[in-house]
Amino acid sequence: MNAKPLWPPGHTLKLLQKVQRHESLVELVYTSHERWPFPRLPTHPQRRLDTIRISILDSSFNPPTCAHLALANSRPPRYTVKSGFTGLPLASAAELDYDAKLLLLSVRNADKALKSGDATHEQRLEMMYLLSKDMSASVSKSESAHANVAIAIVDEPTFVGKAVLLRQFLHARSLGMYPSATALDRMAISPASDEISIPNPRLVFLLGFDTLIRLLSPRYYGSEVAMMDALRLFFSPAGDDCYVVCARRKLVEMEHTVQEEVEAKTLSVAKEFVESERVALISLGTDSVDEQTSSSQVRTKVTLKDETWRRLVTPSIANYIIQNNLYAS
């Protein structure tokens, strides 16, 4: 596998600068095909697709790990599958998956400033590209053929803010793209037909448990009342219509009982959203991924010359880290 993405020199830097200067809300760095987040080709069922379910793996990717890969390829909880292909039976595993996937890098993180020794934003985007290829390589051939993955940049530290920007971006992209998606059908169906409509995006944020704790922390909102107001709009079907899927993971250096207390406290804050099926906890369910795997673990092990770090990332990411001498000091 190529160590470098197939984009021209300076491509990512130019897009990063556009976002940082607020010339653009969101910039797509890479898409697996030009029609993302819609399917590759217009097909008859697409005319009846009323919702595009988009999973969003939003992380610092410093570096991407096997846990990122497992989370990116995790199946959606049953209730996020509602309102997919209307009136049609689910015929394949691909249709049980998300309609599209997004790897998202925020150039402004609420907690993590860029530090000396970190991978640059450009390097992280290159590793995200390698991760997107690993996502396709780790699933069945039939699912890989329908890969619908994108990489994007945003300059917004909060999930509530990201949801607003992404919905605006996706709406504008859909308006510009959807006429071409139905062009092949116009001889059979009038453009004014009720069957032709732009699908609504349903954003499903994929998080680790430590990130869920931050999402439900009042300090990022100013007060608990402001937090609950913001989250109700974030999760409401009449608002941003978002979901959160969280992977259970033991927080590093925490005793099991302490972890249980943290989880119970966090879920008590999220009770309203868990009961409304807007927040779900899942297990990554793979023997190859340790629940404690984290990017900070990889960085520490590389710095300490502990070769076990290679087990925590995919071979393509490991090769990239070595070739670019990342995290060595």
TrEMBL record:
InterPro entries according to UniProt: Rossmann-like_a/b/a_fold
Origin: domain of life: Eukaryota
GO CC terms: cytoplasm; nucleus
MF terms in GO: ATP hydrolysis activity; nicotinamide-nucleotide adenylyltransferase activity
SUPFAM superfamilies the record matches: Nucleotidylyl transferase
PANTHER family documented for this protein: NICOTINAMIDE MONONUCLEOTIDE ADENYLYLTRANSFERASE
Name of this chain's protein: Nicotinamide-nucleotide adenylyltransferase
Source organism per UniProt: Suillus plorans
